[in-house]
Amino acid sequence: MAEKGKEAEFEGRLREAEARAAALEERMADASLASRPAELAAAGRELAALRPLIAAGSGWREAQRGIAEARDLLRDGDPQVQALAREEIGALTARLGGLEGELRALLAPRDASDARAAVLEIRAGTGGDEAALFAADLFRMYGRYAESRGWKIEPLSEHATSGGGFKEVIAILRGPGVFGQLKHERGVHRVQRVPETESQGRIHTSTVTVAIMPEADEVDIATPPGDLQVDVFRASGPGGQSVNTTDSAVRITHRPTGLVVTCQDEKSQHKNKAKAMKVLRARLLQEETERRNRERADLRRTQVGSGERSEKIRTYNFPQNRVTDHRAGITLHKLDRVIAGDLAQLLEAVTAWQLREQGAP
Q1: Contact 353/327 with Cβ under 8 angstroms?
Q2: CA 159 to CA 139: how far, in whole Å?
C-alpha cells in the first residue's frame, strides 16, 4: 500500500482496537459479570490479545512524532543540530520499520484462540528409538523457549522409553498468547543425524509429530429457560400406584439434545426440580466433554498426518548444524542454538510466511 494509505490503515485499526479495549475494560469492571465466569474469562482473553497491538501502536505513533520533530530541526541553521537530527531520523526510521512489521503481524486475521494457553503433544513417528530420543529433544527445546518467555509448563502425561526418549509427551504451556505464537509448529518434524548406536557413522532419518492445540475452557453448561421443557406430574410407586396426592414429580426435557431427566424422590416439587437439573447438567457436561475430545482427536490427526518421512514441515540436520523450515523457505546454520531453545528467528519466519499466505499487507 502507499505510505499515506498504510498510515491511515494502521491508524484506523489502532483506534478500533483502543475503543474495543476500553469497552472490554468497562465491561470487566461491571460487578455483575463476576457471576458469569465464562464471559469474564473470554473478555479477559480478548483484552490480553489486544494489549500487544495497542503497545506496538503507541510505539509506532511515538516514532512517527519523533521523525517529524527531527525533520523540523533540519531547517535549523546550526550544522551540529542538523547532524543530530539526521542521526535521530535514521534511528527512528529503523525503529519505525520494525514496529510496522510487528503491526502487520498483529493486525493480520487472527484465530479466536490465539490468546489461549496451548496443549503441546509430541509423539515419536518413524525411526524407532531415534525418533523417541528426538521427541525428547523437541520437548526440551520447547520447554527452554517457554522458560525464556516466562511461560509456565504443566506436564500432563509422559510415555518414556528405556533409552531416555519419549513415545509420547503432553504438556500445557501457559502465558500471554502462547497458542498464537506456537500454533504453526504443528506437523511433522524430521531429524537427520548419526545415532549413538550407529557404528558405521551412517546418517539416519526419523520423524516426530507435533500437535499444538488451544487449551479448552472448563465446560460451562448454560441451560437457558427456553431450552428446557419442565413437566410436573404425580409421583407413582411400584405397579403404577400413586404415592403422592400432589404433582411433585418433575420431568425436564432439554430441547436442543433431547435429553430427558425425571426425579420424583422428594415430596417437594422444588427439590425434585433441583435434583433433576443437577443430573441434566451432569449429562450435558459429559456429552460436551466427549464431543470436545472427539474434535481434539480429529484435529490432532489432521495436524500431524501419518508421521511418514515425506510429510515434513521442518528438517533438523545435525551433521551440518542446519535447520530448514520448508514452508517459510528459511535455512539457519545454528541448529545447536535452535535445539537449545533459540526459536525466535524461526517462529518469526513462519509467521511471516503465514501472513503472505493470508495475503496480509
Answers
A1: yes
A2: 13
Q: 4: burial class by Cβ within 10 Å (0-12, 13-18, 19+)?
A: exposed
44 Cβ contact partners less than 8 Å away, ≥ 6 residues apart: 28
Helix (H/G/I), strand (E/B), else coil: 254 = strand
Residues 220-231: tens digit of each pLDDT: 466 788 889 998
CA atoms within 13 A on the CB side of 360: 20
Give the whole-angstrom CA distance, residue 21 versus residue 40. Answer: 14
C-alpha cell at 12: 484506523
The DSSP code sequence of 189-251 is EEEEE--TT-TT---EEEEEEEEEEEPPPPP-----GGGEEEEEE--B-GGG-B--SS--EEE
- R_g (Cα) of the chain, nearest Å: 29
Q: Which residue has the cell 520423524?
A: 207
Note the pLDDT tens digit of each residue in 68-112. 998 988 887 788 888 888 999 988 988 888 788 778 777 766 666
For strands 314-317 and 187-193, give the pairing.
Answer: parallel
Picking from 39, 48, 52, the residue whose alpha carbon sits closest to that of residue 217 is 39
Separation CA 190–CA 312 (nearest Å):
6
On whether the pTM is more than 0.85, the answer is no
Report strand pairing: 322-325 vs 330-332: antiparallel
Cross-strand bridge partners of residue 252: 230, 261
pLDDT in tens, 107-144: 766 666 787 788 888 999 999 999 999 999 999 999 99
